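All the exercises in this workshop are built on plain-text protein records. A record pairs a protein's sequence with a compact description of its fold. The structure tokens are whole numbers drawn from a learned vocabulary of backbone shapes. Once this layout is familiar, the rest of the handout is easier to follow. An example says more than a description, so a record of this kind follows.
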Amino acid sequence: MKAVALLASATAIATVFTVPAFAQSEMSTGADVTGVSQVEDRLDDIEEAVEDDFARSNDADRFGPQDRRQGLFGGISMTYSGSTGNDESQDMALAGRMSYNQGPFAQSVGLGIEFGEDSDGDKDQEETYAIYDAQYYFNDRFYAFALGRINQDGMVDEELDDLYDGLLDAEEISELEGRKKRDAFLGFGPGYRIINTPDTTWRVQAGVGVRYTQAVDYSEADNLASETETGYIASSRFYHRFNDMIFVTNDTDYITSDSAGDEITNEFGVNYQMSEQLATRISYSTEYQENREIRTDNVLGVSLVYGF
């Protein structure tokens, strides 16, 4: 379903300016060596996840491009860690995003690279991925969108080399089959804002796309099979505010192709700002995939923020 989440909406990519952190400081003296800082980081992760849940529910693009930052902007972040002693490992990650907005046209490009070695000094991660998102507004209701994505897993070649060298056991050989070395998608289509008032917004969009995959297939001479197919996507975003304290959202996405079949996701959320200190979000998500034994999964989510 990662592909569905990406293809679902032309507004899925946030165009924010990222400032990298150049220094790390412990929360108090001795916190790092005693493990307090590690627990503090886990607390931060939980808080950020809840904040992201609330931010997504507000749907910053529901009123169109009027408040978008204009011009060229973006940011690049990189992190690296290497260890010696009891283990010899290293990890590196690079991520960047550039956006360009001019009047009714908005677009952004994102790129990520991740590399890692395990405690034995053997490479265990090599991933490259990029995304593209564009929107052009003909008026305050009608717009066109384009979405692009490419993922490449460099570890597939490493695993195939191990296969040729006889270093994989039966379970590892079985798990390798079907693993994607490359996965790309490009899609475009129209969108329309059916309702666009301060209290209620509803927009829909639909389009056609082409998906390319290259995956491990032992029936091929080089153990890699490529496939190109047409996919169709449709999305709906609904928002309604009852008053200053309560608003509801309902997000629906649909994608279909010959190999993947029908995939549908729907999330209904109720957001309640009980006071300046207390806010609650309750959501119910349904995910349907045609080509699996148990086709439907349902998830109930509750997020709570209290400040004092």
About this structure: Residues 2-19+32-306 form a domain with the Porin fold (CATH 2.40.160). Confidence is low (pLDDT under 50) at residues 1-23. The longest helix spans residues 36-58.
